[in-house]
Amino acid sequence: YQRRVHGDSLGNLQMEFFLLLVCASVAFAKFPKGFSFGAATTAFQVEGAWLDDGKSPSIWDNMAHLPNFTSDNTAPEIAADSYHLYNEDIELMKTAGIKNYSITLSWPRIVPRGRANTAVNQKAIDHYRKMLESIIAAGITPIVTLYHWDLPAILAIQGYGILDRYFVQDLLYYADTCFKNFGDLVKTWITYNEPWCIVMENDFKKRDAATRPYKMAHNLLLGHAAVVNLYRTKYKEKYGGVNGIILNADMPYPKDPANPEDVAAVKRLWDFQLGWFADPIWFGDYPAGMKERVGDRLPKFTEEEKLLIKGSADFFALDHYTSHLQRFGKAKEQTDYWSDLNVTDSNKPEWKLTDMDWPIVPEGMHDILVYIHEKYLKGTSIPIYVTENGMANKEPTLADSVNDTPRIEYMRDYLKNVERAINDDGVDCRGYFVWSLLDNFEWTSGFSKRFGMTRVEYLNPPKRYPKASLYLSLIHI
Q1: Are 436 and 40 in contact (CB under 8 A)?
Q2: Which of 128, 167, 228, 264 is such that its CA lies 20 to 30 A from the CA of 472?
């Protein structure tokens, strides 16, 4: 692949050695027939082309260009340049045998002015159609997320962004544009990636922190329900697709299982992270414990809204990376989300850390899948998909990247626990997506963290070098 695309190579023998290393180090159990192995990227983190072909800036474009906003003082103006080099990404997946690709579309590229009833960027429509057609022609199934944090900046400049009373109708206009133009190519639609992060990445400390996070989450949930209802009533009969929302959660364990306060802290964390969004979608309302602690500061759904939001997902999509110990927090004087939650997390000293300083706890994958199955899905035919899992590995040089044994071991151990949840506990998990296909712009960490199964050298144009972990799908799944 490297010789074909770049005219240089690490050499046949060296690459064969790395592939043999992968084969020798991965001893997977068998997954059910039809289990989907895939890779994931997002538009903002890999596309680059930040102002090309009519795209407007996103809120993250604006923030990333602030001095010292990112740890390495970079912005993703070019990134992996997947806007121009997506065929190289497709070739990587073909070579590795990856059959499923989770991507996002860019709202500020498709609707540059952000608002409902403003101009649609035809260049963006043509680009994404061509890219999706190329993905499908390669025998790869696209899974498409509408919104992964890159809100058109103009919506924040001219209004209140997600808190704006027009947010839902603006989102619906963008979603309708995507369904209309790509519905024949995309059969799995996801509204948002990680709404908890969308909310909690904001700095609410001095801006009505007692209510703003809850109002923002409420607007996101109403927007999600409206988008799914739009697809089901207008497009499902024609295209036959499915809808979901990606929720993120760490696996919490009580620091002292014999301490009732630590056990209660774990329950609160479930309610205030996963349950904040999962309970309305699966049960029609916020968790009882959350309503009790937040009181009147937590918005209420009308009965009509409850009917719309309950059942507004055809599958449970989970991003999971790590686990923590939880204990009862100390009472705080201020009134905000973190005080409402009131937990303190820590790690076991024997847990190894990734380059993000996230503990590596493979059994947490098993335990969180079982928890979701038991609480939300037992007795239903609704499946779970692990839509992100992976690790940032310290890889200062190309040689360090290509032989990424720590990532292989991480994926091996987490996948074994997915298999254990399926075969030992009856969890209906049907897919696993690695974050990420490529090294990418990792938000406030800039380009300093490497999550990819492919190394990206951030040149102009960037160069791609497959890592040993990329070939896991050829070996087992």
Answers
A1: yes
A2: 128
Identify the bridge partners of residue 327 per DSSP, sorted by sequence position: 344
Please say if the pLDDT value at position 17 is more than 90: no
Contact 223, 163 (CB under 8 A): no
DSSP 3-state assignment of 438? coil
Question: Which secondary structure element, helix H or strand E, spans residue 389, and what is its range?
Answer: strand 384-389
Active-site annotation holds for 388: yes
Sorted by sequence, the CB contacts under 8 Å of residue 191 that are 6+ apart come out as 145, 146, 147, 175, 223, 224, 227, 228, 243, 244, 245
The active-site residue out of 47, 194, 395, 442 is 194
Instruction: Look at residue 9 in the predicted model and tell me its pLDDT.
Output: 43
Task: Give the contacts of 300 (CB within 8 A, at least 6 positions apart).
Answer: none
- Answer for the pair 111, 120: CB distance below 8 angstroms, yes or no: yes
Coil, strand or helix at 174:
helix
pLDDT at 131 over 90: yes
CB 50 within 8 A of CB 430: no
Does the annotation mark 395 as catalytic? no
Mean pLDDT of 183-210: 90
Residue 179 is which amino acid? F
Q: Which helix (H) or strand (E) holds 235?
A: none
Q: How far is CA 26 from CA 99, 146, 154, 473, 476, in A?
A: 20, 34, 47, 11, 9
185: number of Cβ within 10 Å:
16
33: buried, middle or exposed (CB in 10 Å: 19+, 13-18, 0-12)? Answer: exposed
The catalytic position among 88, 388, 395, 442 is 388
Least confident range of 8-22, 102-116, 141-155, 463-477: 8-22
Residues 28, 416: contact at Cβ < 8 Å?
A: yes
Which residue in 171, 198, 212 sits closest to 42, CA to CA?
Answer: 198
